[in-house]
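During the reporting period, we have paired protein sequences with backbone structure tokens. One record among many follows, to show the layout:
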Amino acid sequence: MDDPGPTLALFPLHTVLVPGAALGLRVFEPRYLDLLRDCGRSGATFGVCLILEGAEAGAPAMPAAYGTEALIEDFDRDPDGLLALRVRGARRFHVRRTRVRDNGLVVAGIDWLDDDPEEPLQPQHALLGELLQRILEQVGTDVAAIPKPRFDDAAWVGWRLAELLPLSDAQRQGVLQETDPHLRLQQLLEFVSEE
């Protein structure tokens, strides 16, 4: 019998989570409260995928075939009494198949994508490292606290730009699915040039 491989419960959203990015969630549906309870007990994680068809609440939505593992960083109750989470994107994955549990939770058989290699920015993308520094300064990040080599790391620059630039969900999903950090930067450069 074929090895089914790893499985991951999915939290489909109308947004794309990229590696290293933070995302705030408000959780109220029983299927997701159950999922988070399971994560708390077992230390498991869950996956965030862009919704291709459907809604965030109600009937199970159809998720994109690529997503990002979400690590829970913090949780609390918001003023409305709902569970408020802060998660951070970790590893990327490709969905091979999905099934829907009785409670409506979508569980996927996945393949983890390889981690990005550490490679320097190519000359044609050097401007993107400078653009990222300016954006981070504008949003109030202490750029001096970020190690200088980060701004020359093609993968890190690409993911931070994918997180911070005003991209459409479709554009951000395309960046997430690209496995080559230099081709990812090329996509981002084309998006920036169009504006």
